[in-house]
């Protein structure tokens, strides 16, 4: 495995060099490419060599630091997270041979800079390594390097219209399947196909393996939250996940609908929509609405499960550098407590990026939750300080269901943010942000009080 990773990085570096170097041509200028074997005819370089000449390679570096303290009785480190990690990545995207066929490849290395505590979700987590007593028997975060993407791609038309497809180890974003991630994108082993006609798009995605950011390989998906990686797990395989999606996205409007299934485990459906009103003086008002539902299948999921659902909506008003937002959300999952948006318990990602009332320390999607969210953000460019921003938001939730008929709980969270993005010079695009958060759940059994702060710094360069 180590030799394969070294070879992978060498290949990516070589491809990057080919894309960057302006070497002397290996054939006379009058020829389109090297001669075909046994003939004097040249390969048409204007078509085939677009794979390399029109490729791009992106180098990325991202620092992630987090200190989360969770109050758990009789467990000093229970729920705590302390991590300092560096993620380095190479992402190669080819051009298109004959203007239709290409390939992408990406490799990432996640490096643990200091000793840590807890399941960070940004480093490879070895569930079977119990060598660190501070982890409380829950495994250990480690450094690792992975091949995160390797896929062929096809397009019918350079303008994005018509049919397009990807297959291999690839991100997929269709309907209820998504590939949100932290320091790098999660990926599937599968394929996606889309057909676009004007502002309409229909697509289908299918996969039988998945790699989370905190894993070092692609694995079969299961009905167990940790994909059967811990000792004593009795995980059963989910053969595949798949989803069908429809999208309509003209100017200022967005409607996205999807249905999905984890084979014999779970079925999901969701719809999201947004519209932006352009107001006088350059102001704008944007409304977003989202609804999701999911139900377990009896074969691998919970028998006789009820339909779980979440809905949330928001309005955001922007004037100058100021954006003010308000949102409402409600969730229902009497069988499982917290709403699960995935098509397996934990081993595959989802497309829940449309939730309008989440917080840094909680998504506020527990059974019975009714939540109000208020937020404000200011971009200081209008004040002569481009790149600087400040933000604050507050969530207040009621109705969180406790077990055994206990009274409902309340919870609230306050999130702050401060960021800067370099506007010019050799480090243009580099950014740093600080994100403090405070979550309080009172007597709620499902999640404890938390104090949290994240520091994230990133830089990328595309060649």
How would you describe this protein?
With 463 residues, this protein is mostly beta strands. 6% of the residues lie in helices and 48% in strands. Strand 13 and strand 14 (266-278) form a beta hairpin. The chain is globular and about 70 Å long.
Cα gyration radius (Å): 24 Å
Q: Which structural class fits the helix and strand makeup?
A: mainly beta
Total number of helices: 3
Overall 3D shape: globular
- Taken as a percent bin, the fraction of beta residues is over 45%
Question: How many strand elements?
Answer: 22
SSE order, one letter for each helix or strand: HHHEEEEEEEEEEEEEEEEEEEEEE
* Helix content, binned percent: under 10%
Largest pleated sheet: 18 strands, antiparallel, barrel
Unreliable residue stretches: 1-45
Our measurement of the CA-to-CA distance between the termini, rounded to an integer number of angstroms, reads: 29 Å
